[in-house]
Amino acid sequence: MQAHRSKIEIVPGELVWVDLINPSSKEVYEFSKTYHLDKKFLRDCLGPEHLPKIDRIGRVFFMVLRAYDDQSGSDADSVRTLTRKLAIFYGAGFVLTIHRTDLLYVHRLREKWHNDTHLLQTVNHQASELQYMLIHDIVEAVTNTYQSPMEDYFDQLENLETALMADSEAQIDLRAGHYLKRKNSLIKRMLRMHVEVVDKLINLAPPTMQDHFKYAKGHLEKWYIYSDDLSENIHGLLSHNLALASQRTNEASHKTNEVVRMLTVISLFFLPLNLIVGFFGMNFSDIPGFQAWWGKWFAILLLLAVSVFIYFWARRKEWIK
After folding, report:
1. Which residue has the higher pLDDT, 11 or 82?
2. pLDDT value of residue 163
3. pLDDT above 60 (res 121)
4. Which of 62, 105, 168, 204 could form a disulfide with 41 if both were Cys (CB 3.0 to 4.6 A apart)?
């Protein structure tokens, strides 16, 4: 994407908003000379991995915000792939925003402030108030980007719950569930860090703007609570799914154990009987009773006696109910 620069004179000669899209390192350093920016700020500005924060060196403030990227893929689950960074420098008489792509919410803010500039100039606002009013609008716009994914995540959770409850034999896609948990955890982390940034802005803003930032903080905390609630629900759903899977495994194991138990009981009966039959079935003439008339009846009575003994012994051991 080619570099683009927008400049809005909010209060001519007193306050200007400069928005830089995909600037080169050379352009950023040129602006650093104009607005007396520290090189440490510039390194943070150009790096893609920084998290929401606000720092101050001298009279210049440097702030990083991260908005949800609605163009992120379904497999995005990291800070860099799920969010877009917006770097903000502000100090006496200027607000400078820097980002890699033309973010939709920043584009809308540029149009809003361009159209409302003449109206704002007719109202008795000091430049410092208007500066923090712009920063407040940026914070609110960043916060609003998290509304759509949060609603989508709740819908995904509802679909997973419906799939799980519709069929007692069903199992949810654990991969989808863990992706949802990971994404929500990341957004929850971003919301918490933005709350910390807004806390600092409340103390920095003029008294007339502090209530606005308190409202913005409340907005962030609302989505943070929703995210926390969603996190608990996802955890509960995954635990419930694992419990159902474990129950099915236990039921299958119980059935297998019953079959093995039955085979064991049958073997318990027939093993001694086979031993007796095998003994008397050997073709040796010197086996006691082999030629006698009572030999057959002795063998039959012995088989019955052993069977009765095994039956009552197995009942006593509760192997047969």
Report:
1. 82
2. 72
3. no
4. 62
Of 248 and 19, the one with more pLDDT: 19
Please provide residue 170's backbone torsions phi and psi, each rounded to the nearest 5 degrees. Answer: -80, 155
Is the backbone of residue 36 left (phi > 0), alpha (psi -120 to 50) or beta? left
Task: Note the pLDDT of residue 195.
Answer: 95
Nearest to 132 by CA among 231, 34, 232, 209: 209
State how far Cα 224 lies from the chain centre. Answer: 13
User: pTM for this one?
Assistant: 0.73
The pair of three-digit structure tokens given for residue 144, joined into one six-digit string = 């609003």
Residue 90 reports pLDDT greater than 80: yes
Checking if the pLDDT of 244 tops 80, the result is: no
Q: Give the sign of the dihedral formed by CA 30, CA 35, CA 41, CA 47.
A: negative
What does the pLDDT average to over 117-125? Answer: 57
Give the full edge-to-edge strand order of the sheet including 83-91: 4-11, 15-21, 94-99, 83-91, 60-68, 53-57
Query: Hey, where are the domains in the chain?
Result: 1-126, 265-316
Q: Assign a CATH topology to domain 1-126.
A: Beta Polymerase; domain 2 (3.30.460)
Residues 90 and 11 sit within 8 Å (Cβ to Cβ): no
Tokens 């996190």, located at residue: 231
The residues pairing with 54 across neighbouring beta strands, listed in sequence order, are: 63
Write down how long the chain is.
321
Q: What is the pLDDT of residue 66?
A: 93
Instruction: Tell me the mean pLDDT in the region 39-45.
Output: 68
